[in-house]
Write a structure and sequence with these properties.
The chain is built from six helices and no strands. The longest helix is centred in the first third of the chain and has 23 residues. The protein is mostly helical. This is ATP-dependent DNA helicase.
Length: 119
């Protein structure tokens, strides 16, 4: 019961309900699973979480930019792209750029063509 004594010594846990302990047990079991998986095949906890499917990939951001590419101006798409890259923890920003660079730059290419600058 040493672990329970340690947990009860945490001030926030002194008024814990049975539900709190159940949730803590789930968290602890998940932690042990991550730790064991990490020691066997992945080098970091992040790699372990990714391998177990616990982290999101860039699917959401792909859909967001895809929808924006259909209806928004290139300027607005660039603003959205910048916000996503800076604030949304994109896993592979280079890949996202590679997929949407044309939608992001249509107006710039048109302007350059009007000014007779070759791309």
């Amino acid at each position: 019961m040493y672990c329970v004594d340690c947990i009860l010594s945490i001030p926030e846990m002194q008024n814990a309900t049975i539900y709190d302990f159940s949730y803590m047990r789930i968290v602890f079991q998940r932690y042990l699973k991550l730790k064991n998986y990490r020691s066997s095949s992945a080098s970091t906890f992040q790699a372990t979480c990714r391998a177990l499917g616990l982290l999101e990939d860039d699917t959401h951001w792909n859909r967001t930019l895809e929808e924006a590419s259909i209806s928004d101006s290139p300027h607005k798409i660039r603003e959205l792209f910048a916000i996503v890259i800076v604030f949304c923890q994109v896993r592979d920003p280079i890949k996202l750029w590679g997929k949407y660079w044309e939608s992001l730059s249509v107006d710039i290419r048109r302007q350059m063509e009007r000014e007779r600058v070759e791309i």
